[in-house]
Specification:
Blueprint (H helix, E strand, L loop, with lengths): L3 E4 L5 E6 L5 E8 L13 H8 L11 H8 L3 E6 L4 E8 L3 H13 L5 H19 L2 H13 L13 H6 L2 H11 L5 E7 L3 H12 L22 E8 L4 E8 L7 H12 L18 H7 L4 E8 L6 E9 L5 H17 L4 H17 L4 H14 L5 H10 L2 H11 L5 E9 L4
Parallel strand pairs: 2-6, 7-11
Antiparallel strand pairs: 1-2, 3-5, 3-6, 4-5, 8-10, 8-11, 9-10
Length: about 425
């Protein structure tokens, strides 16, 4: 059956994808707010709001969401991105009203009890401190801070510890009220249901909710970078790391199809979302062969961070023991230069296209994967953007991959962070 799209009078966009002969349902509510909507002094507030929406309010008592979903054998979660925040439940299709009630209640009725806000402050600070124990987090945070000086992509979604320590309940609650409104959200349902019946249930759950004035548009634009930026970190860790990031256009840009294949040729493709990929690493790519197979690294990844605004294409390398960062960086530079000098062969590009097609099929496997894919695409551009993107990927010629390598993977648009692991005191 075809995907059905409708909007309620209060502005909530509803995207229904029925799947015949399945008894499962995945419900996703996504808000067009992420850390890009924060300002200095309240970084991490969007992620903190996400935590508070599990604390009850309206018809929901504290802890009741977990009880309701566990009772029907379902699963749920939420996450905050730079560009959006999303919540989901995957449950039996017969329990649709349970998920719709949960999401409609927390859209406008979250309690933000002062005691719970204070309790959650400890949780989000602890999460921040736990992340700081991970060299990969520290290196990536440093990279985004180097690459972006004006745009809020400068900080990560978890925010800065000093902001988390000082942020009060009232501005946190105001942030929630401003962005958590039906006209700043959309609902995705994937699974076993009749669209007409589902829309009636959606109207009953969400139509009473009032819209809010539209949030102001993002006005901050990152100036063009005119010189390589570098940083060396020395912190406790098990191994050295090398991260390099080049400025690239937003997801909706015409160069994205060629950049998808550049990413695949250089470091492998892991889908449009990271939800399905887990810890899996592709091996049929240039950097894996040049670094991991050559025993210079234990892990390598390349990803094009798909975002609403101009973003980064990031190469990350975990070095093997006793291998110098200089040597690994020279290999990375060599492989980038190879792509700039000559296009990939037709056979190599065909293999990359097959990898992208395979991931596209994998991301349609099951109601939960389809839910996150539709939600991510709608947040970045449009829910049905994957098929047109795949068609454009299929038409990319080898010369186009070389051209985007020359256009974007240039030193003056690059930021580099080298993490030098220091022995942990015993």
């Amino acid at each position: 059956m075809a995907t059905h799209v409708e909007s309620l009078d209060n502005g909530l966009k509803v995207i229904l994808r029925p799947i015949p002969d399945t008894k499962a349902l995945s419900t996703w509510v996504t808000y067009r707010v992420g850390s890009r909507n924060e300002v200095p002094g309240m970084t991490g507030s969007t992620h903190w709001v996400e935590h508070m929406l599990f604390k009850g309010g309206g018809k929901l008592a504290k802890g009741e969401i977990d009880h309701l979903i566990s009772r029907v054998g379902g699963k749920m979660n939420a996450f905050t991105d730079t560009d959006f925040t999303t919540y989901f439940e995957t449950i039996p299709a017969s329990d649709m009203d349970t998920a719709l009630m949960i999401e409609s209640e927390r859209m406008r009725n979250a309690a933000f009890d002062p005691k719970e806000v204070e309790a959650e402050r400890t949780v989000v600070i602890s999460e921040r401190e736990g992340a700081e124990n991970q060299p990969e987090f520290l290196t990536e945070e440093e990279l985004w801070g180097l690459a972006f000086h004006v745009h809020p992509y400068h900080w990560t979604a978890i925010g800065y510890k000093q902001d988390l320590a000082r942020l009060d309940r009232d501005p946190l609650y105001a942030h929630y009220l401003r962005y958590y409104a039906p006209n700043n959200a959309f609902l995705v349902l994937v699974g076993g249901f009749d669209p007409a019946v589902a829309m009636q249930h959606v109207r009953e759950a969400f139509s009473p909710l009032k819209p809010e004035p539209a949030p102001p548009p993002m006005r901050l634009v990152e100036p063009e970078q005119h010189g390589e930026r570098r940083s060396d970190l020395e912190r406790p860790g098990a191994t050295d790391l090398l991260f390099a990031g080049w400025h690239v256009p937003p997801f909706a840009h015409e160069d994205t199809p060629a950049l998808v294949l550049l990413t695949t040729v250089l470091g492998g493709w892991r889908g449009l979302t990271s939800f399905a990929a887990g810890d899996w690493r592709p091996r049929s790519n240039r950097l894996y062969r040049a670094l991991v197979d050559a025993k210079l690294a234990t892990d390598v990844a390349v990803r094009q961070d798909l975002k609403i605004d101009p973003s980064l294409l990031i190469a990350s390398v975990t070095l093997a023991n006793r291998v110098s960062v200089d040597r690994v960086e020279a290999v990375l530079d060599r492989e980038v230069e190879r792509l700039q000098k000559a296009p990939p062969s037709k056979a190599e590009l065909d293999r990359a296209k097959r990898q992208v097609r395979s991931w596209q099929r994998y991301e349609h496997d099951g109601v939960t994967f389809q839910g996150i894919l539709l939600s991510t695409l709608e947040a970045l551009s449009a829910w049905d953007a994957d098929e047109p993107l795949l068609e454009k990927v299929e038409r990319v010629r080898p010369e186009a991959v070389r051209d985007v390598a020359r256009r974007y993977l240039v030193p003056e648009h690059r930021s580099v962070v080298r993490f030098h692991a220091q022995e942990v005191p015993g």
